[in-house]
Specification:
Blueprint (H helix, E strand, L loop, with lengths): L3 E5 L21 E3 L8 E5 L6 E18 L6 E4 L8 E4 L2 E2 L7 E10 L4 E3 L3 E4 L9 E2 L5 E5 L21 E2 L8 E18 L10 E8 L5 E5 L5 E17 L5 E2 L1 E6 L2
Parallel strand pairs: 2-9
Antiparallel strand pairs: 1-3, 3-4, 4-5, 4-6, 4-7, 4-8, 8-9, 8-10, 11-19, 12-14, 13-18, 14-17, 14-19, 15-16, 15-17
């Protein structure tokens, strides 16, 4: 797995509507999440620890959201963004705008198809330290000249090199055949890359290894995707990243970082 995962034991966990508010009917209308919880809460973070995913499973299908912030007033919200949408049992809302090594307060919320509301107690998590970069990332906002496919405009190939860990590129079910080509704009001495895979809550769309083809030459790798930057040594301009092994489905990348020597 490419992310750092930390487990949090949940005592009273719940999920209420995707808007962080009351049901309008008072606390009597709100049930504790422990009534439907079938797992603990876990977190995964990207390399810079600026975006995290919260994972939790419920015994009934609910629409999920999480309110979070650096104080008990919270102030930010993340919703479950599975492509299928609607209510489901495996939840993974993505929390953007985080800072490394910082404590956050959060409250999970959700609603089922009968309108029953669930809400957790106020809890906390702490982000890990950032993974050290191996050089200057020269990939952001470079041209994506080719890709195997795009799931939709919202999951465009350019999202993989926009410098924003809150967006992602998804192929349309390419599995191990997914690829992306990036033009760095000039010949560059590259000393490292970091492939941040996307993933679905059902375990699909996880890229486990990848290859790099430089300016149409022979592929380099395969390299494992394990949450750490990959050290390389080559000079080139157009880089093609191929998923070599995956769990299938809508594979792609949250972000692909390319580190130069300079």
């Amino acid at each position: 797995m490419q992310a750092v995962r930390t487990a949090i034991t949940v005592a009273l966990l719940a999920l209420v509507a995707a808007a962080c508010g009351d049901s309008g009917g008072g606390d009597a209308d709100i049930r504790p999440f422990e009534d439907i919880a079938t797992s603990d809460v876990t977190f995964e973070y990207n390399g810079p620890a600026t975006v995290g995913r919260l994972f939790v499973t419920t015994g009934v299908d609910v629409v999920c959201a999480v309110a979070f912030g650096e104080t008990e007033d919270l102030g930010m919200i993340a919703t479950d963004d599975d492509m299928a949408g609607g209510a489901h049992a495996d939840h993974a809302p993505r929390l953007a705008g985080l800072q490394p090594e910082t404590e956050y307060f959060f409250r999970l919320q959700g609603v089922d198809a009968r309108g029953t509301l669930y809400r957790s107690e106020l809890m906390t998590f702490t982000t890990p330290e950032a993974v050290a970069a191996t050089g200057l990332n020269v990939a952001p906002n470079r041209a994506t000249v080719a890709s195997s496919s795009e799931f939709s405009e919202a999951f465009a190939a350019e999202n993989a090199v926009d410098g924003d860990f809150a967006t992602e590129w998804s192929s349309a079910g390419d599995g191990d055949d997914a690829f992306l080509e990036v033009d760095l704009g000039e010949t560059t001495e590259v000393v490292g890359v970091h492939y941040h895979t996307r993933q679905m809550t059902d375990g699909t769309a996880i890229a486990e290894s990848f290859t790099i083809t430089v300016d149409g030459g022979e592929p380099l790798g395969p390299f494992p995707i394990d949450g750490q930057p990959t050290e390389v040594a080559f000079t080139g301009r157009v880089l093609r990243f191929d998923v070599e092994r995956s769990t299938g489905g809508n594979t792609g990348a949250v972000e692909i970082e390319v580190f130069s020597a300079g």
